[in-house]
Amino acid sequence: MAVIRDMMPVFELFQPASVEDATALLREHGEQAWVMAGGLDSFDWFKDRVKRPAVVVDLGGIEALKGIESTADGLEIRAMTPLTDVVRHPEVREHYGLLSKAAELVASPQIRNQGTLGGNNSQDTRCWYYRDGWTCYRAGGNICYADTPTSMNREHAIFGADRCVAVNPSDTAPALIALDAKMVVQTADGERVVNAEDYFIGPGIDIMRMTVLQPGDLLTSIRIPSTWAGAKFYFEKVRDRQVWDFPLVNVASAIRVSGGTIEDARVAVNGVAPYPMRLTAVEDAIRGASQDEATAERAGEMAVRGARPLRQNAYKIPLMRNLVKRSIRVEA
Amino acid sequence: MANALIGKDFTPPDVRGKVTGRAKYAEDFRAEGMLFCRLLTSPMPHGRVRNIDASAALAMEGVIAILTADEVPEIPAPGNPILTNEPLYVGEPILAVAAVDETLAEEAIAKIKVDLEPLPFTVDPLESLRPGGPNARGSANTVVSGEGLKEIKWTTEDFDAVADGELPMGEPTATWSYGDIEEGFSGAAVVLDETFVTAGTSHHSMEPRTAMAYWQNEKCHIYGSTQSQSFVVPGLARYLGLEPDNVVYVGENCGGGFGSKGAAYPTMVIPALMAKKTGRPVMMRISRAEEYAIGSARPGFQGRVKLGFREDGRLLACDLYVVQENGPNGGFGDMSAAASAISIVYTPVAMRFRGASVLTNTPPRGAQRGPGQNQIANAIEPLFDKAARKLSVDRFAIRRVNAPDHDSRYGANRGAITSAYLGEALDKGAEKFDWQKKQAQSGQRRGSKVIGVGIGQAFHSAGSNGFDGLVRLTPEGKLHIHTGVGNLGTYSYAGTSRVAAEVLKCDWKNCVIERGDSSIGLPWNLGQFGSNTSFTMSRTNYAAAMDAVGKLKEIAARDLGGAPDNYEIGNEAVFRRSNPSRRMTYAAAAKRAIQLGGKFCGHEMADDLNPMTKAAVRGLAGTGLVGVAKDNLPRTGMVPALAAGFIQIELDLETGKFEILDYLGVADCGTVIHPQGLAAQIRSGAVMGFGMASLERQVYDPHYGLPRSVGLYQAKPPSYLDVAVGMGAEAVDQPDPQNPMGTKGIGEPLMGCASAALLCAISDALGGHYFNRSPVLPDMIINAASQRPQSHTPLQVNTD
Lengths: 332, 800
Ligand SMILES: Cc1cc2nc3c(=O)[nH]c(=O)nc-3n(C[C@H](O)[C@H](O)[C@H](O)COP(=O)(O)OP(=O)(O)OC[C@H]3O[C@@H](n4cnc5c(N)ncnc54)[C@H](O)[C@@H]3O)c2cc1C
Ligand code: SF4
Hints:
heterodimer; A: alpha+beta; Enolase-like, domain 1; five-stranded antiparallel beta sheet; four-stranded antiparallel beta sheet; 20% strand; globular; B: Aldehyde Oxidoreductase, domain 4; 3 domains; 22 helices; 28% helix; binds flavin-adenine dinucleotide; binds iron/sulfur cluster
């Protein structure tokens, strides 16, 4: 446990100007290196002296990793694009309003100015035991402090637990999943494109990582296909405070309705599992159903089936149920 | 005659610095050769230092010294120590390291090996009271007024005597009563017997308690972050073993204290002691996480209250038991303050208070805005609503019928009060808020949203006397108002300084407030806490100004003939009433005062002044006409600050979230001396209250004793978006008879009335579901709204 916190230890800082230089540096320093985007997750770790990389590779100077562009099939948002830019971008707003809404509800204006879309989707969990430097499973130990009869786990998972019961805290992640976004990852073996829902991994796959990114990998951009452009979107986030606060639970849905019938839908929630959860069973159940209160109710009930609350977080069951319900009965 | 300044808005002189960034806080000061020091703090809630090995740290280039508990003055238990070898909470400072820069100091700390033996601990008072339960301090688990540390265990029978979820009530550490409560309960139409919990809260001061110090010619100069100025000096001197004369204290601005920086506190002197050891100036900045540990906290309550109401809602009897979460040290008197607050806000015909202040291995407890009064407002006000429902009495009426009047009595001793206009505050609030109409909207649905309304009331004593005032008219024709009260950020130092200008009929443009540095000559004043400034400081400034008026008249009579009584003041001159052309300007009188010497320019002064004031006057003697006096005006009762809050919210039953649609705070603060300052207090107090009621988090993992909130984003003070947009502010504006300006303090109850009102509104929106605790968080609201059990037990502290 920490006898001091709030001040960064020294590290070697690299500020490459190209993706090539960045990947070369990452390869050279391997596990010693830390990729830094906006720094809002990174600096917390450093200041608390819990994660102490010898080398930090700051992506902030790589112009090629910034910006939003239209493509033949939708949009390409580069990983280092600040959340504020995602919120304000006219095309995002017009066709993929789900994402701008989600990004707009992240944290606070200052954090959105500095935090990046790539970083927001690659951030670590906020489990406070882990962030405090306790050597739990996720930190390489062999205990979960958050899952005992006395744990303080109000913000932890009701789904997907596997030794670790922490949640993914990102607001934009479920929006990207609902939009069927693709994550473009630069690996040692070249570029790899991963579906957003597969980008996030649970503790069963690797308890020490939240995403598919391996040391040395870079997320370079996020592609949003036009498939869901202009669909009916719903994003809602419930948090303790109305700004500067992580979600307790959030929900993102994209729905196509024709003549009152749901033709197709994608629904994802976050804050309930170690990864943002796509609710495929709900999607299947509502496809072809009429968009009404009964369908919404049913979707909500289905969504929470199998939830396993911890000591202090059973409230997430009605909360998730209600949010999913609201995301289905979305008004035009 | 109408006041020229009092009751008018003005721009306090420190505003400009605050908006331009030029205002200096402790960490903005620098001194030649300054070192930085950092703290090594305890990683565990209770432990004993077996060994410290700092050799590797001290071997680092640029690391100058370490300072351990063995080298600093020992503070007798249960005082808060400066450094300790037996840390009693996570984050308690064990040692300090000084180095040429902060990063180095921190690297050095990381190299120090502290061998700590873990000891038993507790973060739940009731657990500690159980037979065989853990003691926060080894041999002691309570602190008893007048007796100090003591071990008290309740019996198994005490615990078995109550139903699940009810507070057991064993041997108290404090008790008082008046009247016959049993008679009250037997005559009551409705009796409630309720167990409640109010969580402790951190102070969240924007400015952590940084300090810088150096020594010069035996004098210790300290730059700190405190609410108060002169009041801090004797405390610092005591910590350092110096005469107060040998302490120079600079506290120009304070980035929030809320009670936690009212007096000198032990960590402030660490840089001073380190400076002494190293012979160099030392700056010690405090981090946010450290602030949450050493910055003290409001104690939480586990309580039980029995209330007996007459058919019309009149409170016949109140029986209160509070178990106070006291932190590991001396703590603060919240529980008895809570009981006294009940005695004046609801004026029960009969009342009994019992309490037990139990030690916990959590941050030291100290005063926080409305200490005790605001917790009890949160506990009691919703129960008044519950009783009103049972009695079918209007929720406004049940408060109005119990409101105090000027003859009401206060606390255990049934002491007199100076004035009480809570009833008038309720009336004014009901009218301005349109309570009848808004109440009629209660329960209205809009989809999943439902309207709730609430009224809250709170109290704090708000005034003292016996301190000194000091003003000075200079030959340049300026009025210098020397104020030693401090500047906690409410501008009341300036508002009360204007009393001197009002009495002397000075143009405010010709006034200079002297403050913030004890070496410039500041009088002995009470600290800026306890909502006392408006009352106390308007009296001292009045006394000093009256002394100056007397001297002006004497000088005029001497030079212009006649008796002092023949003279009047006006337009910054003293003139003969019968012939105003026989006049002398203040500038000329100041010159004459210097020539005349003696009492006129401060070479002589009254004996009853405090030594600090005397020293200040000696330093200023000969620079002008000095008005200096002790406030010997009569005060024959406790000065109550009272407030009422009215709120309307819309609560979403599906998310547990609510929006505050409207809020109005009404103050009984006597005559309003600074309307803008008051409005800012009413609103900001409400913001803080909303946090206490519904957001703030100060909880501990019960198994490890670990604090869960070590950052602002985890502790969750309210944000701009969590409060109502245009919150209303009103005042009764009736003068208190025992203040020459009619004014009383008000800061503290403005928080409690808002937080209690909000809790009432949440319960109202839920159709009368009473949580019996604060804060009420969204998860609790969702559970209630969806008829699910809560995740916590009724008496649980640390509900996450
Ligand atoms: C007080 C606070 C409140 C917050 N509230 C919210 C909230 O409400 N909702 C929300 O969604 N988020 C919230 N956040 C998170 C914040 O919005 C950031 O998005 C997040 O911290 C990471 O973004 P960043 O750009 O700062 O990345 P960094 O902190 O620099 O990086 C985060 C992680 O991702 C990795 N990484 C970043 N970019 C790449 C890349 N291109 N390739 C490979 N790896 C990469 C880094 O190595 C690091 O591990 C909050 C943060 C704070 C500090
Ligand atoms: S929930 Fe996960 S991150 Fe938190 S303590 Fe358990 S293992 Fe660690």
